[in-house]
Amino acid sequence: MKPILTTTKTLAATVVLVTLGACAKTPDRISAVPMSSAPYTNMACSKLNIEKTRLDLELRNLSADQSRIASADAWGVFLIGIPTSAITGEDKETLISVTKGRIDAIETLQSQKCL
Length: 115
Fold this sequence. Notes:
elongated; 0% strand; single chain; 115 residues
């Protein structure tokens, strides 16, 4: 029979690991969602450059928000035991994944037709 203290420590460690797994990811740990380049195929190279620049700015803004959210989650877990994004729903992971996928699609087209 395990001592109660050991069982309590194991349970506490499990709760912490599960809670940390629910924390918002940092932007660099978020992968791109594969996106079709079809919406961009009829764009001229100059328009592709403009759209990529717009998406790069959007990604920078989303990443700044996500970094703030990930940091707040870490503090939330430390202070109250739960990630704050679980309460607020602020996580930008999906938007970052899609934006990264769009950028990848444009870059693929640029490499094919804008040499």
